[in-house]
């Protein structure tokens, strides 16, 4: 019998300690229709009710077999907190941001004194769901708190002008990043207080390949570092996920002090591990062309390939959020491959 609980194993490996075997986790979106049907809890309703959110999050552990419970599923509650318009998702689709609220620094003034625990906001639903899960699982199963990263939150509240703004209005861009990061820290620490023991930062538009090294170094790294430092002060390891081919940006991404970097299917895992010094590489089975649309045998083959490429310097996981219609058996094939990998 292992000397580690699932929580101990994951926290230890993320903090650079040796463990008996690889933890089987997913740091990105975990909800699937199979899970919804198994427990009779469905999107989009589960996104707006703490008990349902906790139950469907838990299904990733009880129905699928992940050795962690990740909360929540989408990355729109943060923008919704500040009044951005949100298009509700469906049984198979995530919600999305459809309108923005900030055009100048003056637009930030109405938000002064905000409270991430405000019970009229969806952030409070996420916090309550984490509390429910923490009370049930205690120290046995890790709860992975999650939210959108500060750069992508800045883009959500300002709109598509954000990318031009950081290039032409530096002071404005940095002030928006300070605002978004302040919120991110408050919300992350509230999740930790509620019971999260690991944290996943999803910052899809903070892409090195999209904004380049200079802008990434100025508008992303110092703000990620503030957030990760705050988490580390609480003893909570952090994983950073950024979409796209981040290969050439991995070394720069690591300078924020993050414990692990989740890479998508556009990155070669064997190359990725050579680009970082300490951070674990997490990934990177293709969520569409492997986990969703292929056979169990194909998933097993791809899992073996990625595990070999990671060379004991990473964790096997999906390369991005799991497609909601992914078959349970495919996810379980990936999980078994991870659990059978010993260091």
UniProtKB/TrEMBL annotation:
One Pfam family per UniProt: URO-D
GO molecular function, a single term: [methyl-Co(III) methylamine-specific corrinoid protein]:coenzyme M methyltransferase activity
Cofactor needs: Zn(2+)
Gene3D superfamilies listed in its UniProt record: 3.20.20.210
GO biological process: methylation
Keyword vocabulary terms for this entry: Metal-binding, Methanogenesis, Methyltransferase, Transferase, Zinc
Annotated Uroporphyrinogen decarboxylase (URO-D) domain residues: 5-341
Entry EC number(s): 2.1.1.247
InterPro entries to which the protein is assigned, alphabetical: Methanogen_methyltrans (IPR052024), Methylcob_mtaseMtbA (IPR048096), Mtase_MtaA_CmuA (IPR006360), UROD/MetE-like_sf (IPR038071), Uroporphyrinogen_deCOase (IPR000257)
Top-level EC class: transferase
Protein name: Methylcobamide:CoM methyltransferase MtbA
Native source organism of the sequence: Methanococcoides cohabitans
Species classification: Archaea, Methanobacteriati, Methanobacteriota, Stenosarchaea group, Methanomicrobia
């Amino acid at each position: 019998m292992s000397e580690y609980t699932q929580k101990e194993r994951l926290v230890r490996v993320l903090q650079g300690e040796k463990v008996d075997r690889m933890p089987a986790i997913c740091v990105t979106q975990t909800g699937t229709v199979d899970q919804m049907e198994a427990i009779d809890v469905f999107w989009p309703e589960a996104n707006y009710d703490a008990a349902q959110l906790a139950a469907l999050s838990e299904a990733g552990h009880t129905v699928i077999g992940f050795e962690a419970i990740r909360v929540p599923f989408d990355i729109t509650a943060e923008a919704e907190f500040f009044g951005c318009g949100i298009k509700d998702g469906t049984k198979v689709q995530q919600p999305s941001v459809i309108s923005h609220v900030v055009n100048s620094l003056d637009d930030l003034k109405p938000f002064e004194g905000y409270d991430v625990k405000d019970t009229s906001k969806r952030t409070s639903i996420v916090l309550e769901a984490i509390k429910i899960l923490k009370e049930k699982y205690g120290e046995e199963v890790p709860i992975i708190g999650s939210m959108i990263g500060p750069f992508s939150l800045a883009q959500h509240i300002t709109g598509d002008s954000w990318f031009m703004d950081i290039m032409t209005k530096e002071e404005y861009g940095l002030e928006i990043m300070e605002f978004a990061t302040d919120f991110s820290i408050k919300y992350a620490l509230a999740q930790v207080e509620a019971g999260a023991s690991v944290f996943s930062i999803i910052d899809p538009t903070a892409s090195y390949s999209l904004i380049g090294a200079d802008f990434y170094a100025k508008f992303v790294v110092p703000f990620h570092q503030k957030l990760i430092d705050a988490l580390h002060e609480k003893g909570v390891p952090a994983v950073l996920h950024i979409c796209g081919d981040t290969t050439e940006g991995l070394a720069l991404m690591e300078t924020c002090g993050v414990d692990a970097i989740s890479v998508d299917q556009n990155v070669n895992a064997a190359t990725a591990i050579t680009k970082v010094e300490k951070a674990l590489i997490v990934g990177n089975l293709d969520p569409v062309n492997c986990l969703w649309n292929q056979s169990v045998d194909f998933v097993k083959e791809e899992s073996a390939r990625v595990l070999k490429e990671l060379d004991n310097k990473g964790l096997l996981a999906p390369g991005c959020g799991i497609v909601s219609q992914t078959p349970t058996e495919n996810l379980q094939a990936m999980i078994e491959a991870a659990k059978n990998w010993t260091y």
